[in-house]
Amino acid sequence: MTVHTMSVSATKTKKVIEHLRQHGGQGKGWYHAHQDPRPLDEQTRASLTLPDGRPLPPSLHAWLAFDASWFGLMTDTPPRRLKLAPLKDLLRAQARAMTNSPHGQEVPAEESFSDEQMVQVWVGLLPHPAMAEALAVELPPSGSQQHFFVFHQAGPEGEYPIVGFASAFEFWVKYPDFGAYLSHYFGLSKPD
Question: pTM for this structure?
Answer without folding.
Answer: 0.87
